[in-house]
Design brief:
Keywords: Cytoplasm, Endoplasmic reticulum, ER-Golgi transport, Golgi apparatus, Transport
Number of strands: 5
Largest sheet: 5 strands, antiparallel
Protein name: Trafficking protein particle complex subunit 2-like protein
Order of helices and strands: EEHEEEHH
Family: Belongs to the TRAPP small subunits family. Sedlin subfamily.
Subcellular location: Cytoplasm, Perinuclear region; Endoplasmic reticulum; Golgi apparatus
InterPro entries: Longin-like_dom_sf, Sedlin, TRAPPC2L
Structural class: alpha+beta
Radius of gyration: 14 Å
CATH topology: Beta-Lactamase
CATH architecture: 2-Layer Sandwich
CATH class: Alpha Beta
Strand order of the largest sheet: 2-1-5-4-3
Number of domains: 1
Shape: globular
Helix content: 40-55%
Length: 139
């Protein structure tokens, strides 16, 4: 499983990227960045009614031969992208949604830290531990 958290627009630079295993990491970075266009398309297609909701689970953004790419956007326009190997058929949609909620809650905890400057890369042991445990469940 691979994970990317992207900052809110217009910057769209990564705040946190984690990849297990680490081979083909450049391909993973490319996949995360190219998925942003699909995220923006889905958000605009949903219209204002969906944007007013508290959270936006975008579901499967697109499948490739090797990966399935899922997306999630918070109400503050922070984009979460998760890339899972296509060979993993055990993951259901509700499990992916639950993983995104955990990520969102942990991200919220980081944002509540008075020593964190919004927009800085995420360096948090608690966040790393949560991501590691989540990735161990998937792999």
């Amino acid at each position: 499983a691979r994970l990317g958290i992207i900052c809110r627009p217009p910057q769209n630079y990564p705040l946190y990227i984690r990849s297990v295993p680490t081979e083909n990491e450049l391909k993973f970075h490319y996949t995360v960045h190219t998925s942003l266009d699909v995220v923006d398309e889905k958000i605009s297609a949903m219209g204002k009614a969906m944007v007013d909701q508290r959270e936006l689970y975008l579901g499967l953004l697109y499948p490739t031969e090797d990966y399935k790419v899922y997306g999630y956007v918070t109400n503050s326009k922070v984009k979460f992208v998760m890339v899972v190997d296509s060979s993993n058929t055990a993951l259901r949609d509700n499990e992916i949604r639950s993983m995104f909620r955990k990520l969102h809650n942990s991200y919220t905890d980081i944002m509540c830290n008075p020593f964190y400057n919004p927009g800085d890369r995420i360096h948090s042991r608690a966040f790393d531990n949560m991501v590691n445990s989540m990735m161990m469940q998937v792999c």
